[in-house]
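Example: Sulfatase.
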Amino acid sequence: MPHSTRLSQPPNTKKATTTAAPPPDGPPEQVPDGAPVDECAVDEAAADTASETSGSTGGDAVGGWRDRNPAVARAVGRTVTALAAVLVLSALLLPNQLTRLTPGEFLRIPVEGIFGAALLLLLPPKARRVAAVVAGVGLGLRTLLNCLDMGFYSVLARPFDPVLDWILFDDAESFLKDSIGQAGAIGAVLGVVLLVLALLVLMTLAVVRLTRLLVRHSAVATRTTLVLGTAWITCAALGVQLAGVPVAAANTADLVQDSAERLRASLADQQVFAKEAHVDAFRDTPPDQLLTGLRGKDVIFTFIESYGRSAIADPAMASQVDAVLKDGTKRLRKAGFASRSAWLTSPTAGGGSWLAHSTFMSGLWIKNQQRYRTVTSSDRMPLTDAFKRSGAWRTAGIMPGVTRSWPEGKFYGLDHVYDTHHLGYKGPQFSWSRVPDQYSLSAFERLEHGKRHDKPLMSEIILVSSHNPWAPIPKMIGWDELGDGSVYDAIKKAGKDPKEVWKDPAQVRNEYRRAIQYSLHSLISYMEKYGNKNTVLVFLGDHQPVPTVTGENASRDVPVALVAHDPAVLDRISGWNWQNGLKPGPKTPVWRMDTFRDRFLTAFGPRPGETKEEAKGGTPGRSGH
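Written out as structure tokens, the predicted fold is:
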């Protein structure tokens, strides 16, 4: 910020004519003899002039660039001031959603600017300087939060949580590293840091410069503030709109209030949720009464990344995805399997898959990171852990998206977790997705399902090929051709460049649809080849894709299906009123995802009047293929 320069008057002078330093925006203002002098105005005007001349003369205004080029200097000064005004006005009117980023949003009167100008005109010099700096920094931070909201709305269909979402930047950096490489990720992070610093500095300098302008032209500024204030009140009272947008704007105040409310809610939610997590109707269920209706079955829970209602309901994608589901239903029926399907409402959209996974398994609504940390460090019994606690199943997890330590495996009751380093994959990385879905399922067969065990197997499998950015996409090949994954080198080279795909929303939706088709093909083909009379599959989407695919205000519903060879398994859920086949219909029941655990444990628990021996029915063990 430019330093103030004190203009001293000669001693022993009774009367003097004071001339303000020539401002960059017009001729100097003459102060008549005997008139009181606003020393701050004089100081700030001189500082403004000095800061402009010091660029080429090291602070010596005599014979400087400004004196040699007065017309150019005035033009530059006015341009800088105009840019400062545009920057501040844009920040005051900036919305927090990309869909609202229209010209009409910036043709309004911001009430915060009116109050801010009035306050700066009323404050004494020292307080005014401090207030200008604080206002500049605050406006820069508010602009930064608005930009974060835009990003979160675009990806997660919700605003940024200033308390709980900071940890997601680490995941974002990992996503960039996986998608564009480490060098690209480092460059992107450095670029963001520099932009944030530049925003804060430029916004502060802009507010300080405009404050000096207000002080130098205080009479005009006061009249203008009164006129704009009256106009704002009138427009607000009459509801005047321009292009469907209210002329009287209170963007910053509304957004600050909204952020404060979210902050308060986030802090209060922690205590409320801790009490909810402590209540578990199934925690004390005796092991021999857990999941008695599935004894002897190999149960597989599979999440398909970003598999949402839009993949089935959006006319641009529905016909192709529906064809896969209908054909899959027929193929599985031919292999002896029947299926039922419905909808679940996910707590997240666009991303945050782990929130959906934990909601589905724990029976609690995990809508943010704080809830996730709370539940995964509690003694809550997730659905997968119920299999382990029963003592009747071996448990395993196939997690190709996990690249580092994953202590949550203990919470989920998984005896063995196979992350990306344990699947034996030697092929190329498909953008963020490290391992193609077909290979993950093949590794599951090789490492667990196809082996002989003394107990049936319960598994959780995460399929990630349909993860954003959806290019390049693997393709189905023969199961005996997969090897160590090197065969995918040529497939990746023939795929599309994600940077080119994301230039066109229509291409993004097309590639998303193709990725979902691939994931569904992989799972259906696996069941055809490796499923047997004791296999039970529950598969579902974790959340809807980003709004680029779904459009704004899309539902958070995801498809869920249960596939079994034994009719007795599906008989247990006859009361659910799910639809036959892999494709849920428009009138099929829609449940919140957190209700599934209790419904499942109830449906497959002991039935009224069932003896303990009957409850323990089923095959005591299984053999590999």
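The radius of gyration is 32 Å.
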